[in-house]
Amino acid sequence: MWVILIGGYLVGWRGVSRGGVIGLSALLAGYFVLRFLVLDTGLPGLTPRDSGFGFTRYTPEELTAMFGAHPLPFYAYNVAVSVSTVLVGEPRNGIFSLTRSLVERDVSLPLVVGALASVLATAVVLRYAWRRRREWRSSMAG
Fold this sequence. Notes:
67% of the residues lie in helices and 4% in strands. It is mainly alpha-helical and 142 residues long. Helix 1 runs antiparallel to helix 2 and helix 4 (72-88) crosses helix 6. It contains 6 helices and 2 strands, in the order ααββαααα. A hairpin with a 2-residue loop joins strand 1 and strand 2 (56-58). A two-stranded antiparallel sheet has the order 1-2. The protein has helices spanning 2-10, 18-38, 60-67, 72-88, 97-103, 109-141, and strands at 51-53, 56-58. It has 2 domains: 1-42; 45-141, no CATH class.
């Protein structure tokens, strides 16, 4: 929610006041302080569940063997593919299923439709943002 509200506020949509944006930002910061400093829960480990990486789903044991004491690349992968999933619909659950199906020439129509819908939606949003950029800049300046 924070990203959506900040994004909307930055482009001039004033559905939430400046005080609301500041308050929500303070709550988000408080969450991180509570989670990482006060409760010391940190990030989840590699062992709680299976997870996708690249073109395959791995068990916790396999993930631990791959990343061991250095899980940061795995976490970075998860963040990057989460963004990619929203923007282009691939990968799904951490696995590049559509890409694999295209390489194997066993194309899944639902995966193609989902990716196409995501790409088109992203294109519409980017086009809208590009066309309104001067208006947003001028409203930010003054």
